[in-house]
Specification:
With about 80 residues, the protein is α+β, with helices and mostly antiparallel strands. The chain is built from two helices and five strands.
């Protein structure tokens, strides 16, 4: 039996300023939101949540970025598959 856990990307956006944010599901039931901040911050942050809270945090972040600076990429429009 393997102890390997795998993440699946459920949604993704890139803000106008270059920050990238993903909504991830771990195969053990945990979900996470990951932020990859553009220059000048150049850092990453990952927060683990239950699935409902992760979707809420991701959507709040995406809506805020869309209002502040627009989105360069949004998985709701761009993915040829399922995305939240």
């Amino acid at each position: 039996m393997s102890n390997h856990l795998e993440w699946t990307q459920k949604a993704y956006y890139e803000a106008g300023g270059g920050d990238r944010v993903g909504l991830l599901a771990l195969d053990d039931g945990h979900w996470a939101v990951v932020w990859a901040y553009a220059d000048p911050h150049c850092s990453m942050q990952v927060l683990s949540f239950d699935p409902e809270r992760a979707q809420e945090v991701f959507n709040t972040s995406r809506n805020g970025a869309e209002k502040r600076e627009g989105l360069r990429y949004d998985s709701r429009q761009e993915w040829q598959g399922s995305s939240l």
